[in-house]
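=== Structural record ===
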Amino acid sequence: MKILLSNAVVAHGAFHHWMTQDMRALGHEVALIDPDELCEQFGIELYRRVLLQRIAAERPDVLLLYPPYDLLRPEDAQRIHDMGTVTAGFAYDDPIFLPSYLRKPGDFERICDEFKRVYDVYVTTSRAIEREAKNRGMSHIRHIRWACNTPAPLGDRARDLPVVVIGAPYPRRVKMVKHLKDRGVKPIVFGAEGWKLFADVADCYQGMLTRPGMFEMYRRAQVAIAPADWESTYTPMVKLRTLEIMSMGAFQLCEQCEDLADYYVDGEEIVSYKDWDELADLCKKYLADAKRREEIGRNGYEATKRNHVWTVRWSEIEQLAKPLMAEYAENRTKPADRDEHLPHELGLSACAGHYEKLGDTATAQIAVDEWLALNPGYFTALLAKGRLCLAEKKFDEAERHLKAALGSAANLCPRGVDSTVTQRKLGPRLGLGKVFSGIFPREVEAYCHLLILYAMADREEEAERLMSHLAGVSQDVLFISIVSMIAEQNIEQLIGAKYLARYVEVVISTEPIVWAGERTRHLAHFWMLRGQALAALGNRREGRECLEYALTQSPYPNVEQQIRTALTQIPA
């Protein structure tokens, strides 16, 4: 079988690292296309066009995708079917999104219907979403368990790291590590350098790891901890991390979740914990019992190799895909439409993006103008043109192109889950903007730049009118449109203290749903920004009050230091 993996090659590796080895061992021909890098360089629409041309040239039997991050629309899926390729979605983050799907009546049904029109096969690692679908009479969403590449033999090397935690320094995890320390268990922590910002746990931090380095640390771990969370929210889900730990034969303490019993026998192949006190007790218990710890770790390794590898799991997807492969077979020999302008537009996009990043707006403008001559209503090019004009302070021309981009955005991603690829910075990203995995419209970047424009041009009435419009769309859209802007370094130099104070005031007053956690985590920073802006406007008393209030909002250590420094610069 010929399989094309929609895959993040240079980031986390996604399907390539998780399954390619086993798929090739089964005799399948596996190729990769990287949406993250293509979207980063060229924008989402050009990525879709590249994908369609890859399928036209290679005619894979199956395109394996990862909903809801893959950016396909029903019309794209239809073109893929017309070329004889089955679209299969392997949804591994549904537990994260499910609360959002269920928040408003009718949303779940609409989203599932859209998934049905995009994916011939939709399998999910979440039993909960399969159950919700079945309760509504939907049968196209099927449960599947995680799998990994077949692990190598363990060998007999000693395990010399008592307790290992690997992952990002989300506040919930930081609190977990601190709790363990307070209970007399000091984990060894690897992950992003943000761990060093938290004084209570900084002494546990041992640095960043490569992917091979991560496996090596699990190979050396006596106890490996796998919390069930996403950012700072408890999210009851089995992650690939659990299988990765098992593939190294480490004894694993995994936070309780509904689906864990689908994978391992609790107490024999893995041990679960319900809270951090129990976690600390279990660490102590099994650190003192090497024999039992090694037995459970070995049992988990054997269960993984026997039941949870892709040489075993792929047959479940293959059985669902084969009838559709037969149905589409005659399409495989049909000629596909050529996208004649695609090479030209890719070159112009790369040129415009390169020179925009260098700050050479004049050269970038040449490329964008040629691009728009080829494709006048193209969202990504219109957005780039608006940004370039804004950088040159051609406010009227910038506004015209940004609004034109908004007008062309209606059918960009008409999906219930209009999510994006990865987290990227705001700026010359050709349509990506501040990319969060969440539920908001693609045109957020255009809104954000319009708010910047109205501040730079001191057009207060237009700024207020736009914020009112965004509030009518949703509190989340209003929140993220402003936060995308104020998250940038030195934004106050661009928009001035007056507008920074106002925009932050609006952010503080919002009540987002999807981004409620983001608002809570950064509330101290927002109050600090407002206090500094008010002080810069001469309102020192209220500025100090904002800064003093910010200290009560559990700021991150580095933010707390910034707040205290700011207070020393504003006389009482």
About this structure: The domain at 161-307 is CATH 3.40.50.2000 (Rossmann fold). Confidence is low (pLDDT under 50) at residues 414-439. DSSP finds 25 helices and 13 strands in the chain.
